[in-house]
Structure formats: structure tokens, C-alpha cells
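SAMPLE LOG
Freezer: B-3
Tube label: C17
Construct: single chain, 77 aa
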Amino acid sequence: MRRLRGLVAPAGTPREILLRVNRSVAEAVRAPDLYKRFLERGVELVASASPEDFTAYVKAEFEKKGRLAREAGMRPE
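STRUCTURE (predicted):
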């Protein structure tokens, strides 16, 4: 099952815009019919609690993937 976690915006987007988008996305993923349609396709919709929560998630994922790449001996070309 894949999880759709969030949307990104350009750097410098005003916080009030980020909050408005976050609220709208959270409201949309709570809609039972939308959630069900995505789930049937193997995607679980998850809304972050806040823009900062999503930023922390993205940073943690980058760190995790970087650690895996280093442990596998991968190097950028």
C-alpha cells in the first residue's frame, strides 16, 4: 500500500497560504468517497497535521534514504 502524504509549494510561500492548503487537503482526504476510491487503487490518503509536520516527515525520509544509500555504498555521480 502506498501512502500519499502531502503536497509541496515553492520556497517562500506565505504561511497563511500553506495553512489554507493544508486545511483544504485535510478536509478532502476525510471525505469517505474520495478516501475509498484511492484505497481501492492501493493508495492511502494521509493529511499532515501541519505544514511543519510534513516538512519534518520529508526531512526524516531524506535522512533515511541517504543512510540506506551510504550503507549500500552508493555514491553520487
